[in-house]
Amino acid sequence: MSVRCLLLSTLAFGCGGDPHQTTPDAGACWPLTSTPGGSVALGTGDLTFTPMPDTLAVTRNGSQSDPYLPILARMAGLAPGDPHDALNPTNPHTKITGVIADLGLTLGVECPASIGYVAANGVADTFDLAHALRIGLGTTTLASVDGKTIDITVEVVSGGLYAKDEKLVTLTVPN
Amino acid sequence: MRSSRIALAVTALYVATGCSSDPGTPAFEVVAHDQSAALLSVWSSGANDVWTVGGDARDGNGPLVYHYDGATWTKLDSTLRNTDLWWVFGFKNGPVFMSGAAGTIVEYQNGTFTKMTTPGTLIAFGMWGAEPNDLWAVGGNFGGGGFAWHYDGTAWTASTQVPADLASQGTIWKVNGRSSSDLWMTGTTGSTLHWDGTTLARTNAATDASLFSVAAQGPRMIAAGGDFDGVLFENTDGTTWKSVLPAGGPVLRGVAAAGDQAVAVGAYGAILSRSASGEWSTVNPITEQNLHAAFISPDGDTWAVGGQFDQIPTTSGVLVHQGSALNGSFE
Question: Does ipTM surpass 0.90 in this model?
Answer without folding.
Answer: no
